[in-house]
Amino acid sequence: MEKILEIKNLKKIYGNKNNITKAINDLSFSVEKGEFVAIMGASGSGKTTLLNCISTIDDVTSGNILIDNKNIINLKEKETAKFRRENLGFIFQDFNLLDTLTIEENIALSLIINKQDYHEVDKRIKDIAKKLGIEGILKKYPYEVSGGQKQRCACARALINNPKLILADEPTGALDSKSSRMLLETMDEMNENLNATILMVTHDAFSASFCGRILFLKDGKIFNEIVKGDKSRKEFFNEILDVLTLLGGDVQNAR
Ligand SMILES: Nc1ncnc2c1ncn2[C@@H]1O[C@H](COP(=O)(O)OP(=O)(O)O)[C@@H](O)[C@H]1O
Ligand SMILES: [Mg+2]
After folding, report:
1. Could you tell me if the CB of 44 is within 6 A of ligand 1?
2. What is the CATH number of the domain that holds 52?
3. What distance in angstroms lies between residue 235's CA and the mean position of ligand 2's atoms?
4. Fewest CB within 10 angstroms: 32, 44, 157, 182, which?
5. Which residues are bridge partners to 91 per DSSP?
6. Owning domain of residue 9
7. Model pTM?
8. Is 103 contained in some domain?
């Protein structure tokens, strides 16, 4: 197995001497290539902080983060932006599609910023669009397509630079249950058929039940870990609820 993400003794402390918050408190775990992993935990347990550290958006206090064996802790500011564009994909809660660009242009944005060859970009878009079933809407604008198609566009955009790792912070947080299921099914397809490695933060047991493995955070540490294995999604869902009961608190209801 190939490790795509390795977190080693990560700490992130906010505040000063008189008022400190240990948002991430000596956290270690890794994600293998092709895994779809969820991070669950109550509000304030450190999920967003963790994702921001992995995204190179936030500095860490100590510890190491390796992405595809490259330690990203000491990257200079200029290097981090490039590293992010070339190695990471993001699925945002509100999808962040630009209304004045076509679906195709939205998907291509990161490649255009990377100044890749036009023919290569075109080929790559067609390939991803075909795999996600949105070839027919590439010339349309976001307001001309359905919610589900917008989601697929956002997923295509996250995949377009062939990222080592896709990060999603509460991607279903603002969606109704039907839209949530569609997005999760698309993410599942990305993982199963396109071998995308995905790390998703979620409060929601239904969302997490689509993943292969779940890490539960409490006070910036791993409290528990469960693996789906051969279980059905329904069985896994029930197992998640059991862990959440153990974990206590507001995981289910918090946003
Ligand atoms: N910029 C910040 N300054 C100070 N404290 C912060 C900051 N961001 C997060 N925290 C604190 O760190 C802890 C973890 O927050 P966060 O990572 O946002 O949790 P989650 O995403 O699981 O709700 C919380 O106690 C929060 O108040
Ligand atoms: Mg959060």
Report:
1. yes
2. 3.40.50.300
3. 26
4. 32
5. 168
6. 3-95+165-247
7. 0.92
8. no
- Residue minimizing CA distance to atom 6 of ligand 1: 14
Residues whose CB falls within 8 Å of the CB of residue 84, separated by 6 or more in sequence, listed in order = 55, 56
**Is there an atom of ligand 1 within 6 Å of 48 CB?**
yes
Task: Report CA-CA distances (Å) from 196 to 71, 115, 249.
Answer: 21, 23, 32
Backbone angles phi, psi at 79, to 5 degrees: -70, -35
Bridge partners (DSSP) of residue 222 are 217
CA distances from 29 to 37, 172, 176 (A): 11, 24, 32
Question: What is residue 52's three-state secondary structure?
Answer: helix
**pLDDT tens-digit series, residues 212-252:** 999 999 999 999 999 999 999 999 999 999 999 988 755 55
* pLDDT average, residue stretch 162-166: 94
Q: How many domains does the chain have?
A: 1
Ion ligand 2, residues whose Cβ is below 5 A away: 47-48
15, amino acid identity: G
